[in-house]
Hints:
The structure holds two protein chains of two kinds.
Chain A: H1 3-40, H2 46-50, H3 63-94, H4 99-111, H5 116-130, H6 137-161, H7 165-173, H8 178-206, H9 210-214, H10 235-243, H11 248-282
Helix pairs in contact in A: 1-11, 3-6, 3-8, 3-10, 4-6, 5-6, 6-8, 7-8, 8-11, 10-11
Chain B: H1 2-25, E1 37-46, E2 49-59, E3 64-68, H2 75-81, E4 92-100, E5 103-104, H3 112-118, E6 119-122, H4 133-143, H5 149-162, H6 166-169, H7 182-194, E7 200-204, H8 212-225, E8 230-234, H9 238-244, E9 247-252, E10 255-261, H10 262-267, H11 272-278
Parallel strand pairs in B: 3-8, 3-9, 6-7, 7-8
Antiparallel strand pairs in B: 1-2, 1-4, 4-5, 9-10
The complex binds adenosine-5'-triphosphate and magnesium ion (MG).
Amino acid sequence: MNNITKNHIKDKLFSATGIFSTLIGLILLAVFIGDIIVEGAGRINWDFITGLPSRKAEKAGIYTAMIGTVWVLVLTTIISFPIGVSAGIYLEEYAKKGRLSRLLEVNISNLAGVPSIIYGLLGLEIFVRILGFGNSLLAGSMTLSLLILPIIIVATRESIKAVPQSIRDASFAMGATKWQTIQYQVLPASFGGILTGIILALSRAVGEAAPLIVVGALAYVPFVPSSPMSEFSVLPIQIFNWISRPQHEFLVNAAAAIIILLIITFIMNGIAMYLRSRWQKKIKW
Amino acid sequence: MLNMETEEIIMENEVRLTKKTENLVTGNTGINTEYEIIARNLNVFYGEFQALKDVNMNILPYTVTAFIGPSGCGKSTFLRVFNRMNDYIDGFRIEGEVFVSGTEIYSNRIKLEELRRKVGMVFQKPNPFPKTIFENVAYGLRIQGVKDKHFILERVERSLKQVVLWDEVKDNLHKNALALSGGQQQRLCIARTLAVEPEVILMDEPTSALDPISTGKIEELIFELKNEYTIVIVTHNMQQAARISDHTAFFYLGELIEQGHTKDIYTNPKNKRTENYITGRFG
Ligand SMILES: Nc1ncnc2c1ncn2[C@@H]1O[C@H](COP(=O)(O)OP(=O)(O)OP(=O)(O)O)[C@@H](O)[C@H]1O
Ligand SMILES: [Mg+2]
């Protein structure tokens, strides 16, 4: 057998392994989603979505948890968007490229890998106790903002980096200042990427339960939060709470709530994909 | 605050005056305002590497000056000295003096933004902004804070007419500039530069990425533009330099070997290396 046929077989072998590995992931996901849908789809109706939590499974709904999730999403966006994007711009455009900035860079990437419960503990100490926000939406959203800031910063930097130097050169050569160049050229050209990063980061935040449990989000909230200082619950915590009940009816509720949560994240990912493709079409270098 | 500034200015003037008297002593008559660009005893370094060695050059207004020479000899470096685009390069250092219409542009009182309004630049690869054709040309005015819509509109139209692009794009002003052909893009980039009414236009191999027809159009354009602007152009194309330039400067390994009227350089080069380069014996 000569080398070429050998390499050919290796090629085939690798491609077969690759397909198999990909399929395993997809099949497991499909089985999981299928199982959830079979279990929970029948439970989803208007009463379930608009119902307040209850000790009786068949009367319980996800309304307060869902509105809590929306509150958390909005507050987290308001907090993390400006901070994350400015930090990204600063690091990419202004920070001197020295040892310090490289250290900062590595650490920010590492932060993205820190377990979320650690952020929960940090949030509990700083926002709940020291700053005295209590077990509020604000404390929870700030904690989630900490969690997703590294993702937003990295996404912002990557998108900014993708803007070709020739565009900056052209802008500077026209007599633009650095900030004008960032404002009129770099940000508009990279905004699709930044937005995509933020939405993906938020869709991660939407699914988090652990850090919010640590900062004191409640499992049972019979009212809709009225201000950032209100106590709250979110969908993942509601799901967690239902799953830990022994009665089967609550498991059905959990499955139904998981479907709703999945739909929310799929929609967010869909928007991210749409934005990315739209921006890619608009800007071809 | 004010005191410190005036003190600085006075000190700088004193330095300048002593330099002037020195120049008078050595027979040099100081700043000759007849020239648009003057470079004196210019040394440029990238870190340890010296990219330009004791370069002196005077450029008259309303002329086309061509920089020629083999790759890496410092043509682009020298060109970018005039609008200080080298400033962003790590390790860049400059010695000597550079005057643009009588002002020393490396003095720390000069504002980069103002210098670049006076000294525009066209790059080798067409680099329009990923915006509409209109916004590309209006950009220079917008960043200067011009709000008058009518004024911007007129200036955009005039600039596009100057580069003979108006008829091709007048119905598509709000189309993305990246949809234009390479040659159109380069003319758009020239229009963008013209829109802020500079005095000097620097061009770094503006036609090297273009087809012969687009190249011809740009050459014609340069010929027209020199009635109103001082043009400095880097080119690897000997015929192009011969066709469009009044003066030619030949660089070799960071040194300005020979400069003069293009006709003289081409018909009667004084230096052997110039002759070899022009006749294509090395490149
Ligand atoms: N950013 C930089 N950092 C370090 N050295 C540089 C830099 N830019 C240019 N040089 C060096 O300076 C010298 C002159 O470069 P320059 O780009 O001015 O040459 P050029 O004559 O324009 O060449 P070409 O015809 O290939 O465009 C070269 O030896 C190059 O390696
Ligand atoms: Mg060059």
